[in-house]
Structures are given as C-alpha cells and as structure tokens.
C-alpha cells in the first residue's frame, strides 16, 4: 500500500490509520434513544489507510472503488460544498464536525489511500468506519481537539492506544466518537453513536457495554470457548433510503403519548413495559410495537451480559433468538433472506442463538456458537442458505466467517 501511495500521490505517507469493523452482539435500534448496546470490534475486517498531511486545504482520496486511469484519485477541499457522491459525503461530514469543534474553518487537508475489507451494506458499519478514519486523518493534520483542550498528535495517539473506560483517554475518545455521530447526522442518517464507539474504543477479547445517554462504557469479556459467526446474506441495504427513519418517527410519536401520562420519562430508555401497556389503547399499532421492541431490547442487553458473564449459553441463546423475533415482528427490519439465514443458523450444529445485526433490511445474521463446532456450523449454514430455492433463483452465494474481537482505532507514525 505504501508503494501505491507513492505512485498515486508522488510522496511517502507519514501515518497509518487502522479502524476495525464492528458487530453488535445485542441492543439493536436502541442507541438513538439513549439506550444500551453491546458491540465488539472485528479485528479481521477493517479499513487501513495511509495518510500524509498537506499544507493547503486539499483532500485527495484514493480507493480502488472510485479510482481509474482517467481519475487516479478524488479531489475536494475542506471548504467544498456537499458533493453528489454519497461515500465522499461521509468524509465531508467529518470535516464539518471537526471544523465546528476546532472553531476554525480553514482546516488543512491530506492525501489518503484507503483499503477496506468491510463488506458494503452488510450492517457491519462501513460508513461509520470511514467517518472515524476521516476524523483521525483530520486530527493528525490539524491536531486533536476536545472542547477547550488540544492535543499534539503524539499525545492523542497515546490516549487512543490506552483505550480507557475512565480518565482522560475516555474523555477524549468519547468526544471524538460523538463527532463521528454528528458527522453522520450531517450526512443524513439519524442513528446513534454505537458504531463510532465500537470501532474506536474496543479492546481485544471484549465487547463494550455502552450507555448511550452518558456515553460511559465498560468492557465485557467474551469467553474463548464462544465463537461469534457472521452470516452475510449478501443482500445490501441503505439506511438513508430504507424504512429506518420511518420506524424512528413511529417510536417517537408513541413516546410523546407515553410521556404525557408519565412526564418523568425523558426518553424511551426510561420506560418499562408496564407503562407501555397502560397507554396501549391510545397508541397506533405501529407506535406500540416499535416502543415494545426498544423497551424490551434494553432489558435484553443486560440479561445477555449477565448470561454471558455466567457462561449460561442456553439462556444467552434464548435471549438472542427472542431479539430476532422482536426485530422481525415488532421493529420489522428483517427480510426474507435474513429470515432464511437465521433459520439456517439455529438449525445448524453448535448454535446457541442467532439474530440480525446492524440496521436490518439485509446484511448479516450474527450467531453464537460452541467453538468446538464452528467449522461444522459454518459449513451447514452455507449449505442450507445457498440451497434454498429463493436464494438459488436470486443467484446469491452467502459468506460465512468468524469474527475475531480486536482493538479499536489505531494510529501509527510510519
């Protein structure tokens, strides 16, 4: 990659930025309402970028997905108006939020070569990884900022490597992650901050239990005898044009009615199922089932963490399967391919449970499997899914692989 960088831009890179993908173990469609989530960084699927700071405001980007002989790289500036290319808009969102935090519009730019192994549209956070990569690149060029505090590049690299859940590292990383969340608001999506935290603060061997109200998090060890398997339906989704926003509107509309009876509630995450049932007659069907999913999902997150800590894998699997049913019938973000994949997973050897991970409308099923049976499981799932008549007629071939937990963002001087 360094040789390709030099060939493309005519000079050597000075920084290497690695940002992993993530899989959310449980806690789906809860982060935007200040709820709880349990994601894990994926060490073996990531975005690796080589960067060189510039003295002007140009940003030159190379990626095999958008470059050609006629256009070896994409060029814009830190002052450019919104461009039409969607993936470049994630970079621009990062620039906009960094400039706001930095309180300086004339940010310096950079040359960047991007190589990613993250499947697009699989629910594994490729867009948020690009956003956090862009923020890291802006940081090594313009220094990292956190409110009134400013960090040199080496100070920031040290704090990022520490991956703390308290102290100065936690404070700086939390601010950086929230900038990533706001950048995607700028882009047009209205999710929460889970992806940004998962891809930035994660530690190898653990998932993170994240409170999306306080942005406090703690590390939850993942037992070595448990395999986390991702089963990609190979059906893509785009949350900007999916029903994601409509479901959020329905949930918030229902919460407004719930809040009238219980004014002490400040967000959906504060409500319990008894309170929801008490106002059911005043809610539309859609308002009721959207709220039902979110309220129960927050409870499931804590139940899952408890079962995982006690290594009660059957109970953990039951919670996961219940979460899948809720995503199917209450939040309604499944599709036929996801249904087929989940059924194939739970009917395969060694599987404790399986559910949709990510926004839904396609993408991946995450399965929790006895590690001693992972190879048999993966072979079985692929055979069952790929041989399904509907899947065969669509010409789809699944991808099944084990997710290895890893560290979040890493920045290195070259």
Describe the structure.
With 414 residues, the protein is α+β, with helices and mostly antiparallel strands. The chain has a domain of 229 residues: 2-Layer Sandwich (Ribosomal Protein S5, domain 2), CATH 3.30.230.10. Strands 1, 2, 3, 4, 5, 8, 9 and 14 form an eight-stranded mixed β-sheet that branches. Strands 11-12-10-13 form a four-stranded antiparallel β-sheet. A two-stranded antiparallel ribbon has the order 6-7. The longest helix has 26 residues.
Short description:
With 414 residues, the chain is α+β, with helices and mostly antiparallel strands.
Question: What CATH first level of the domain at 2-223 and 407-413 would be assigned?
Answer: Alpha Beta
Q: Based on Cα principal axes, name the global outline.
A: globular
Work out the radius of gyration: 21 Å
Q: Helix- and strand-based class?
A: alpha+beta
Main beta sheet: 8 strands, mixed
| Count of distinct strands | 14
CATH topology category name of the domain at 2-223 and 407-413: Ribosomal Protein S5, domain 2
Range of helix content:
40-55%
Q: Which CATH architecture of the domain at 2-223 and 407-413 is right?
A: 2-Layer Sandwich
Mean pLDDT: 93
Low-pLDDT segments, ≥5 res = none
């Amino acid at each position: 990659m360094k040789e390709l960088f030099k060939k493309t831009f005519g000079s050597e890179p000075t920084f290497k930025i690695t940002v992993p993908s993530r899989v959310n173990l449980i806690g789906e469609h809860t982060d935007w309402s200040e709820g709880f989530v349990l994601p894990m960084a994926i060490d073996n699927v990531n975005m690796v970028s080589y960067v060189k700071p510039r003295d002007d405001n140009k940003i030159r980007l190379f990626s095999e997905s958008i470059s050609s002989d006629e256009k070896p790289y994409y060029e814009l500036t830190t002052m450019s108006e919104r461009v039409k290319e969607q993936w470049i808009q994630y970079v621009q969102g990062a620039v906009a939020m960094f400039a706001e935090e930095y309180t300086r519009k004339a940010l310096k730019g950079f040359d960047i070569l991007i190589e990613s192994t993250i499947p697009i549209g699989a629910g594994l956070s490729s867009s948020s990884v690009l956003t956090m990569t862009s923020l890291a690149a802006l940081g090594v060029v313009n220094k990292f900022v956190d409110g009134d505090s400013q960090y040199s590049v080496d100070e920031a690299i040290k704090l990022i490597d520490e991956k703390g859940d308290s102290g100065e590292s936690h404070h700086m990383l939390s601010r950086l992650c929230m900038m990533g969340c706001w950048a995607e608001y700028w882009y047009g999506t209205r999710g929460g901050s889970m992806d940004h935290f998962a891809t930035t603060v994660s530690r190898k061997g653990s998932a993170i239990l994240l409170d999306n109200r306080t942005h406090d998090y703690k590390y939850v060890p993942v037992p070595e005898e448990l395999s986390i398997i991702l089963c990609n339906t190979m059906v893509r989704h785009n949350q900007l044009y999916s029903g994601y926003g409509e479901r959020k509107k329905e949930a918030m509309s229902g919460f407004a009615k719930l809040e009238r009876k219980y004014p002490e509630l400040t967000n959906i995450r504060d409500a319990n199922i008894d309170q929801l049932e008490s106002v059911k007659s005043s809610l539309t069907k859609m308002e009721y089932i959207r709220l039902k999913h979110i309220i129960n999902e927050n409870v499931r997150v804590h139940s899952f963490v408890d079962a995982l800590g006690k290594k009660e894998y059957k109970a953990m699997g039951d919670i996961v399967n219940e979460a899948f049913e809720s995503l199917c019938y209450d939040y309604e973000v499944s599709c036929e391919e996801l249904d087929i994949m989940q059924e194939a997973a739970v009917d395969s050897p060694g599987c404790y449970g399986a559910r949709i991970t990510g926004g839904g409308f396609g993408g991946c099923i995450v399965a929790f499997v006895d590690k001693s049976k992972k190879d048999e499981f993966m072979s079985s799932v692929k055979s069952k899914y790929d041989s399904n008549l509907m899947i065969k007629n669509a010409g789809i071939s699944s991808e099944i692989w084990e997710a290895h937990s890893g560290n979040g963002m890493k920045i290195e001087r070259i």
